[in-house]
Amino acid sequence: MVPTDRSVRAVKRPRRVNVLVAAGCGLAISLALNGCSSGDGTEATRAGAPKVVAPGKPGEPAKTLTVDEARKARGEDSPNSADVDYVQMMIPHHQQALVMTGLAERYAHAGRVGRLAERIAAAQEPEIGAMEGWLSGFGGPRTVGGHHHHGEMPGMATTAQLGQLRAARGEKFDALFLKLMIAHHQGAVSMATDLLSEGRNTLAQEMANDVIAQQSAEIGRMQRMRADTGQAP
Length: 233
Description:
Layout: E1 16-23, E2 27-34, E3 52-54, E4 63-65, H1 67-76, H2 81-107, H3 111-137, H4 159-167, H5 170-198, H6 202-228
Antiparallel strand pairs: 1-2, 2-3, 3-4
Helix pairs in contact: 2-3, 2-5, 3-6, 4-5, 5-6
């Protein structure tokens, strides 16, 4: 007897689904589900239930989490207002640094000042792209909003100071560039330090740590340049 359609039952085969869960962008979690049903969520507590492997921070071991724990970790890593404010402000802060370094590449008197400006620009231009991508990923606007504006950002040069820098030439240009850029970097380091204590997102904190490390080193280099020319560090 030939079986009819009704007498034939479909055989369900276990599926393997690979899921990538990103907490912010800073916490990467790989999850493998083998034949996982859509039950009441208790699978994660049973033996052999799907687990989430969360890579640890540098120097720390990876952690094995349940699905619920991974979801909680993802929520804890979501940006807060401090994260968003920091990135929104740091973008125009970096953009002003590019204006200043562009002038230095044209008018710097000492070769080492021009080379320093090139290194600063080479570092900060891609950082702007990364921060714009971060905002896009979290649906945040790219412009500074709320009560913030350029004049309230630590270290920002005023319109008058930028005008003086554009008009300066020779050693006078170098001296003014170093003075303004040191203050600019110090402002960025201050903003990044505040973010580490007030923010929540892992990737935003990584970007802030990069700013602190790189710009602190450049501050020291510029202070030594000023001291070599007899200026106050």
